[in-house]
Amino acid sequence: MPGADDLHLQERVDRNVLATWVCIAAVVILLTVTAWLLGQIWDFGVPAAVIGFLFAGGSSLAAYFAGDRMVLGLLRARPATRERHRELLNVTEEMAIASGLPVPKIYVIDTAASNALATGRDPQHASIAVTSGLLDTLNRNELQAVVAHELSHVRQRDTLYSVVVAALVGTIVIMADIFWRSMRYGGRRSRDSRGQAALLAIGLVLAILAPILAKILQMAVSRRREYLADLGGADLTRNPEALADALEKIAQDPDRLDIANRGVQHLFVLNPVNPLSSGEGAFSNLLNTHPPIRERIRILRALAHQPVEDLTQIG
Amino acid sequence: MSPLGYVIIVLAAVILWFVLLYNGLVRWRNTVAAAWAQIDVQLKRRYDLIPNLVETVRGYAQHEREVFETVTRARAEALTAGTPRDVADADRHLAPAIRSLFAVAEAYPQLKADQNFRDLMEELTATENRVAFARQYYNDSVRVYNTKIQQFPAALIAGRLRFRPSDYLEADAVQREVQQVKF
Predict the structure, then answer these.
(1) Is A280 an annotated catalytic residue?
(2) Are A97 and B38 within 8 A, CB to CB?
């Protein structure tokens, strides 16, 4: 699709697709190895490895094909209707025209907080959700700018990577949690050597797992992606000022830590590595880079005073 | 490997390169054509909206006949416009006519409060934006396409295979102003 920065765009798409496959491969290998290690203790290593592999493969397929619906369901997003959200649907269609992408599905999350997110594995299966608080806070141009930002995430496939990561990492963390608890119980009831060995094996795997998970999540919340989506959004609207205004309003919103962010946290339930404490979620959440939000506003305002062509030289 | 083997490999590489290049150019030429068609679609949508808008405003402001006639005439003119130049000309009449309709609405508070009218105004704003963004997308596509066919080495074959640079649409000052109307 055209955009002034077509060539860089293709690179970004390729990088996100590659990162997604690396993530899926890492999870499949990890779960298979874990299952095999556990199986070894009770002498059925190979069947356990097969079960682990199938489970990981199934989770990956679910994450890839249904991750977007999982996220939207978790956030209790409802489809926008023409009667109630005419303006939202209109600005989305405008941005779809400006980008040459198919019109994404639009959802509204009922909460006072101002936020927005994009999800979906590719532009043909993209969804954008905004909170009702955002609709109340922003004017038409600002709303358009936010939708353009989210559509840029879709265009550069950030949404593919982030939704797969969110679903897979969520699965792993929940599983690790279940294992830990059951092992502690089992260990207390029968302090046999096998229980001890199992604990050790799990501990070992978790020790390997934690930094990898941390790295994956760190990549998912890359600030670079946010800046690039800001620039991409400004490229669509040709109005960087509107996005800067929107970010400013959202930053001042007192209802910040409402359901949208809690929902994201639920998804991760991450305690070993907690990237959410900095207010950063792993999918394309408008607020997830809230520490540098001032910097984002500054860049956008600087852009507003440059000819549009210069915009393409960055990133 | 025999010298013939090398020749065959190089030849295959050249053919593959040519096929990829050619298909890439075709794809972009089609993108430009589709972007052009999109502008027509959005202009049509705008023409369809105008009668509705005129009727709604007329319900509250019967005396502003002159404005209604101007808008209706400009729309009729736009509908019959064939060439891109005619479309641009018609637009120069239609855009200020629509703006005068906005201005009329300003003078009638009851009209401004009418939900039906507000919906129509939103649709009109959206339609103006769609037209503007369809043009922007067309120009973006043309820029990429023209760059592709003018860059080396595509430039060597593009002309011979009838890939001609497309024209940009001029930014239209009137168009921009309509887009900025606020409520």
Answers:
(1) no
(2) yes
